[in-house]
Write a structure and sequence with these properties.
Elements: E1 2-8, H1 14-23, H2 31-38, E2 44-51, E3 58-65, E4 70-74, H3 80-92, E5 97-101, H4 102-116, E6 122-131, E7 146-150, H5 156-171, H6 181-194, E8 197-202, E9 205-215, E10 219-227, H7 236-250, E11 254-260, H8 264-273, E12 275-285
Parallel strand pairs: 4-5, 10-11
Antiparallel strand pairs: 1-2, 2-3, 3-4, 5-12, 6-11, 6-12, 7-8, 8-9, 9-10
Length: 287
């Protein structure tokens, strides 16, 4: 007889090692989830199966659920037992957003629809792109008053307009109108402490930025790429993501990023910087 169950890794710390070993095969596609495992965050859950004839349970999947009610899962096989476990989880946890490989997210959507009769209020389909290292030299900045800098905590105030505009245009669902400036500043300060942030400084004004959202043993995941509207079309995004990819390469790591399928300008920039499409991703929001 096989018993299926899920457990918060924080309650059983050795599960973090098991989750890391399991996810290593899928690290490229789930960098943010891997980073949460490596940092031993309380948001990490492990799905386990235990056969009565064997002593140790086996990992069948890993997912995270944070305080913002965001759900990310790496579950290779959505069998009936796992679907039942997830229905049990969703019985006591309200989901705001789901992100992951397209087919997996669609399966979670179906579980929520069958169990709670809810459908996503907004759907974003994306590509995962990986840096192929084929672009030896980044596009040069053209103006003398332009330079690229690696940002620190001292740059937080100057980065706030980029932070807020990015969240409004690329993060918030369409119905969220109010910006929580304190929350945005907290997120930015945390990023500057834990991640890598590059920005284009034009005449002492930061007009474009890119950052890592996750750094794992083998990968950098880029996110937060944003250029003020009046400065778009100048190659800033291409330059910045290429610089992060080169930084990753200097540490013998690879680089990935997400881009919305309909964002033709970003797709061109990332392709020019040396990124190729490798997978399809999906992010959904619930009201």
């Amino acid at each position: 007889m096989t018993t299926w169950f899920y457990k918060c890794a924080e309650q059983c710390p050795e599960l973090f090692d098991s989750a890391e070993e399991f996810l290593s095969e899928y690290e490229k596609n789930y960098c943010a989830l891997m980073e949460r495992i490596l940092q031993k965050e309380s948001s990490v859950y492990v799905i386990l199966k235990k056969d009565s004839s064997f002593g140790l349970p086996q990992v069948a999947g890993v997912f995270s659920f944070n305080r913002g009610r965001s759900f990310t899962a790496c579950i290779p096989d959505y069998n009936s037992k796992i679907k039942k476990l997830l229905r049990e989880f969703f019985r006591t946890h309200e989901v705001f957003s789901i992100i992951g490989e397209s087919e997996g997210v669609k399966k979670i959507e179906q579980i929520l629809y069958e169990y709670k009769n809810v459908l996503p209020a907004e759907i974003r389909d994306m590509f995962l792109m990986e840096y192929n290292g084929s672009v030896p030299v980044a596009v040069e900045l053209k103006e003398q008053d332009e330079k690229i800098k690696r940002c620190s905590g001292e740059d937080a105030e100057n980065l706030m307009p980029l932070q807020v505009n990015f969240s409004c245009e690329e993060v918030y669902p369409f119905w969220k109108k109010e910006v929580n400036l304190a929350a945005e500043r907290f997120a930015l300060d945390s990023t500057l402490k834990k991640q890598i942030v590059f920005a284009v400084d034009k005449n002492n004004c930061l007009v474009s930025r890119a950052q890592t959202n996750a750094r794992t043993k083998n990968y950098f995941q880029i996110g937060g790429v944003y250029t003020l509207k009046e400065y778009r079309g100048r190659g800033y995004a291409c330059q910045l993501v290429k610089m992060i990819a080169d930084t990753a390469a200097s540490e013998n790591k690879k680089t990935v990023l997400y881009v919305r399928k309909e964002n033709a300008g970003a797709l061109r920039s990332y392709t020019k910087a040396g990124f190729n499409q490798t997978a399809e991703y999906r992010m959904v929001y619930y009201r």
